[in-house]
């Protein structure tokens, strides 16, 4: 995955285009976080520091996929003469924040860009010691909608019960902007942000068919908190350093989390088919390449919507794309799903997340699993 993404980034790099030099990515081992780090490093030649929480190899026990992604990133960065360091630990904790700050001061100086791409189902708040658990539920009333079971490939309706107030509050505690704010406040306090420093967090909006779970559900409340945090941080950074904070709304991609959310695997399978047919499909690295070159390069001011958000989901939400997706959505059944969707592509992307079914890999050959960063 890392090799393919670095190649894609190098192929799309524009000669002479400069950007941030020192970049911190919080949540840097998979998905959009990993792609962001690759885009910064191979797009701009940036020095990058990644923070993630992955299990390293131990004896005969292999590491998590995200750990191997990061090991591959370091190996390729060394080969290409790029400075890259990582902190492996709980980014929600004060200890990891302090460890990261010390490493920045020692080896990076001041940061130009901080990207918050942390995705976790639970969070232990270091200030109150409580562990909060997120919930993917509608609010106010049950929601019944169409979905596909990835293991059986059966299309059926599923009913999701509404969230309690505690579940709403805990989802905000995990997926809202509080931890992002604490990271930025620490970096300001430690004088580790350069003049004009920028920070970004990522979110997803999606089409109306997903809104009961996303925009209008517990995730939506958390993402509204994230957007409010961005506005607050933008004011702080602008007044202190002449900097900015934004939320980038990215398109739907296959992640471990998205595969578990009702409706999303079916919607994404249909979306991928339509966007590939129109020549519009983008994965994580294509999205982050566009973000880097069109919004974050030197001299660029990010284009935002009326709510101040960067919209990388513009192609996904095009009227013609959504019209075709919704037409297919209405027709989708267990019997015709393989013919009218890209479910096979969804499953392949999902398996690729964990290193399986990757083109060009001979799985019969032995490989070293005890790797260091």
Compose a concise summary of this entry.
With 373 residues, the protein is an alpha/beta fold. The protein contains twelve helices and eleven strands.
Q: Can you give a write-up of this model?
A:
This protein has a single domain (2-353), classed as NAD(P)-binding Rossmann-like Domain (Rossmann fold). It contains 12 helices and 11 strands. The chain has helices at residues 2-12, 31-44, 65-79, 94-107, 165-175, 178-189, 218-241, 264-277, 284-296, 319-331, 337-340, 343-353, and strands spanning 22-26, 47-52, 84-88, 111-116, 122-124, 131-133, 143-149, 154-160, 193-203, 244-249, 310-311. A 7-stranded parallel β-sheet has the order 3-2-1-4-9-10-11, with helices on both faces. Helix 6 packs parallel to helix 7. The longest helix is centred in the middle third of the chain and has 24 residues, at 218-241.
Notable traits:
alpha/beta, 7-stranded parallel β-sheet, two-stranded antiparallel ribbon, 12 helices, 11 strands, 16% strand
Percent helix range:
40-55%
Examine the secondary-structure arrangement and name the CATH architecture: 3-Layer(aba) Sandwich
CATH topology type: Rossmann fold
Overall pLDDT score: 93
Helix/strand order, N-terminal first? HEHEHEHEEEEEHHEHEHHEHHH
Indicate the low-confidence ranges by residue numbers: none
What is the number of strand segments?
Answer: 11
Q: What's the CATH first level?
A: Alpha Beta
Question: Topology, pairings included?
Answer:
Elements: H1 2-12, E1 22-26, H2 31-44, E2 47-52, H3 65-79, E3 84-88, H4 94-107, E4 111-116, E5 122-124, E6 131-133, E7 143-149, E8 154-160, H5 165-175, H6 178-189, E9 193-203, H7 218-241, E10 244-249, H8 264-277, H9 284-296, E11 310-311, H10 319-331, H11 337-340, H12 343-353
Helix pairs in contact: 1-2, 2-9, 5-7, 6-7, 8-10, 8-12
């Amino acid at each position: 995955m890392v090799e393919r993404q670095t190649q894609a980034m190098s192929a799309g790099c524009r000669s002479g285009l400069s950007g941030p030099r020192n970049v911190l990515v919080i949540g840097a081992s998979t998905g959009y976080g990993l792609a962001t780090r690759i885009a910064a490093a191979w797009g701009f030649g940036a020095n990058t520091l990644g923070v993630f929480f992955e299990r390293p190899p131990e004896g005969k026990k292999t590491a998590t996929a995200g750990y191997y992604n990061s090991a591959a990133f370091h190996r390729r960065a060394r080969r290409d003469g790029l400075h890259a360091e990582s902190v492996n630990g709980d980014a929600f904790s004060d200890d990891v924040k302090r460890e990261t700050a010390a490493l920045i001061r020692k080896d990076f100086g001041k940061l130009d860009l901080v990207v918050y791409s942390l995705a976790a189902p639970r969070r232990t708040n270091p200030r109150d010691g409580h562990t909060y658990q997120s919930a993917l539920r509608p609010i106010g009333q049950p929601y019944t909608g169409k979905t596909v079971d990835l293991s059986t490939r059966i299309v059926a309706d599923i009913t999701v019960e509404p969230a309690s107030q505690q579940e709403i509050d805990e989802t905000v505690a995990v997926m809202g902007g509080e931890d992002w704010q604490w990271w930025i406040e620490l970096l300001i306090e430690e004088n580790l942000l350069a003049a004009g420093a920028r920070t970004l967090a990522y979110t997803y909006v999606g089409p109306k068919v997903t809104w009961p779970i996303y925009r209008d559900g517990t995730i939506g409340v958390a993402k509204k908190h994230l957007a409010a945090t961005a506005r607050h941080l933008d004011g702080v950074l602008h007044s202190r350093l002449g900097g900015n904070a934004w939320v980038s709304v990215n398109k739907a991609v296959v992640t471990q989390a998205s595969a578990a959310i009702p409706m999303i695997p079916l919607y994404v399978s249909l979306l991928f088919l339509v966007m590939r047919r129109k020549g519009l499909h983008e994965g994580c690295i294509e999205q982050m390449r566009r973000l880097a070159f069109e919004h974050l390069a030197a001299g660029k001011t990010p284009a935002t919507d009326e709510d101040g958000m960067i919209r990388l989901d513009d192609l996904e939400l095009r009227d013609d794309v959504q019209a075709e997706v919704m037409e297919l959505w209405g027709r989708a059944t267990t019997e015709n799903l393989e013919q009218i969707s890209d479910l096979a592509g969804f499953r392949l992307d999902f398996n690729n997340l964990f290193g399986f079914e990757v083109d060009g890999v001979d799985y019969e050959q032995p490989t070293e699993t005890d790797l260091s960063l």
